[in-house]
Design brief:
The protein is an alpha/beta fold. 44% of the residues lie in helices and 15% in strands.
């Protein structure tokens, strides 16, 4: 098993279900707990990158829309409003711990073209050198399609690859990947370690997990495939317990670990 206590550059992805209540309003207590844990690891010397969903959901709430927007133009409008609110909250809370934040909004073109991908990588490196903490989201307001990356799980995996991270941790509203849907089958069992993304695993995964989110376990398998291809381990853990970050960075297992064979053999 790899030595997780040795990882340095860590990407943490947090989803809409973790950041907001079902009303679409921000879960301030949850965000404060998350920020405190990330800030603590930052102070320990870890290079932390936060990939945050929630802009569209938060924006829709601020605009007093009765449901999540369905048209592209309204999603972009909600994202523009919600992104301001998210960054305001993040910047304010991280500042309480003396940490400067940096906003990075990406499109697929930024990571698919070699020169632009190199520029993004250099930006991450420069921010790490200055001890600033990057907060990343998809640039929804200029996206030409409703979803470019597929969702922010895939975005997080792309960021982990471009930033050459040592580990990706995805927070969700479940404890990890199960062998069946635990909401429907109380006998479903947590899968602690995955070494290969198989057709059987893809069949187990379902659709979007919540009304306000776009992800689900299927998108996390897609993110895991991208990470494993780049030899980057990835965890899926419960976002209701942000303190689990301490366990993971101290080498203890939780949730589901997607462990590339090379990572397992070289550590």
């Amino acid at each position: 098993m790899m030595n997780l206590s040795q990882v340095r550059r860590i990407v943490v992805k947090v989803g809409t279900s973790t950041l907001t209540y079902p009303t679409g309003r921000l879960n301030i207590r949850g965000i404060e707990r998350l920020v405190r844990c990330i800030a603590d690891l930052h102070n320990r010397g870890c290079e932390m990158i936060l990939v945050s969903s929630g802009a569209i959901g938060v924006g829709a709430s601020k605009l007093r829309l009765t449901e999540r927007p369905k048209t592209l133009r309204m999603k972009q409008a909600a994202a523009a409003v919600g992104q301001c609110e998210l960054m305001h909250v993040y910047d304010k809370i991280f500042a309480e711990y003396g940490i400067h934040t940096a906003q990075i909004l990406l499109t697929t073109e930024d990571t698919e073209h070699e020169n632009r991908r190199r520029n993004v990588h250099n930006t991450f490196d420069a921010l790490m050198e200055t001890r600033a903490l990057p907060i990343v989201n998809e640039n929804d307001t200029v996206a030409v399609e409703e979803i470019e990356f597929g969702d922010n799980d895939q975005l997080a995996a792309v960021v982990a690859r471009v930033a050459q991270a040592d580990l990706l941790i995805i927070f969700t509203d479940m404890d990890g990947l199960y062998d069946d849907n635990p909401r429907e089958n109380p006998e479903a069992r947590l899968i602690p370690v995955v070494h290969e993304i198989t057709d059987e695993l893809r069949a187990i995964a379902g659709g979007a997990g919540t009304a306000n989110g776009t992800g689900g376990m299927a998108t996390k398998l897609g993110a895991a495939a991208l990470c494993m291809d780049a030899n980057i381990p990835m965890f899926v853990v419960n976002g209701a317990k942000p303190e689990i970050l301490y366990e993971l960075t101290e080498g203890r297992l939780a949730g589901t670990l997607f462990l590339p064979p090379e990572a397992a053999g070289n550590k």
